[in-house]
Amino acid sequence: MSLPLPPRFSPLAVALLSAAVLTACSSITENTTTLTKYGAVTITGKNAPAGRASATINAVFFQGLSATAPNSALQQGDQCAYALIDSTTGAATGSLKVGESLALTFAGSSVALPFSTAFSRYEPATGAALTYAAGDAATLNVPGLAGTFPAAAITVKLAEPIIPGRLVVPASGSPLDVTWNATNDPSAAIILSVRYGATATSTVQNEQIYCALKDDGAFQVPASGLGAFLASPSALRSATLIRWRTQEARPDSTSLLHIVSTVDTIVRFP
Fold it and tell me: Signal sequence span per UniProt (predicted)?
């Protein structure tokens, strides 16, 4: 399926780019407001040999007056937008300590996530990655701390390894066909980022066509949106596919615990 692209750099791009990020807003008047407490758990995976995936995990907790909790089941509109490529990166940081350590269980194993004072977040002490197979799920247990965040547990089916089909640069006037191994799971969604240099003289990737898709295995980027992609130097063309899945839990009336599992892969055009 393909849909027309909206005007370049439309507000839709902002919505799509924040699809997997839990964010909260606070206020200078928060000392007189009952704040809501949030926990954000991120499991970030890459394809690994033998049809498995390898992932890192971290969790942060913070307070805010409101938050936007991404939902993979709702980000499946088969919509695309142009967006600039932001190459800046930053470490996830929190502001609340909810116990000395969290516990993650998956595939019969258990991993401790002690509190890191450097970033006010929870992560494995050794930085070790967890390795899992398609169909595995992970459960995070939060011990809780009185007056800070309640005890809670949350489970997510881990994002399966994503295997893209062969990519071919289309002729002018033809759509770009993108395929991958579908799960057809309504709780899973796909993010597609087609990256390129915005002009024929570009020396770096600086623009993308960013799409939020159903995990049904096929999508066509419309021909009308491929002008800059086709004009880009061939060495700068690539596509990133991300499979992601979310869950959330509300351990009490003022707290939200959110978890996201992702797997991504990058494909170069021949």
Answer: 1-26
Find tokens 């000395």 and name the residue: 100
Q: How many residues does the chain have?
A: 270
Burial group, residue 227, by CB count within 10 angstroms (0-12, 13-18, 19+):
exposed
Round to whole Å and give the CA distance between 264 and 252. 33
Per-residue pLDDT of the chain (270 residues; tens, 9 = 90+): 444 554 443 333 333 444 455 555 544 433 344 558 999 999 999 999 999 999 999 999 998 877 778 899 998 889 999 989 887 766 778 889 999 999 999 878 889 999 999 889 999 987 677 899 999 999 999 999 998 999 999 999 999 999 999 999 999 999 999 999 999 999 999 999 999 999 999 999 999 999 999 999 999 999 999 999 999 999 999 999 999 999 999 999 889 999 999 999 999 998
The Cα 209–Cα 194 span in angstroms is 5
Distance between CA atoms of residues 164 and 12, nearest Å: 25
CB atoms within 10 A of CB 194: 24
Cα angle 67, 73, 76; round to 5: 105
Name which of 195, 59, 36, 32 is nearest 124 in CA terms: 59
Contact by Cβ (8 Å): 253, 33: no
Contact 196, 83 (CB under 8 A): no
pTM of the shown model: 0.88
Half-sphere exposure (Cβ direction) of 134: Cα atoms closer than 13 Å: 14
Phi-psi region of 135 (alpha: psi -120 to 50; beta: other; left: phi over 0): left
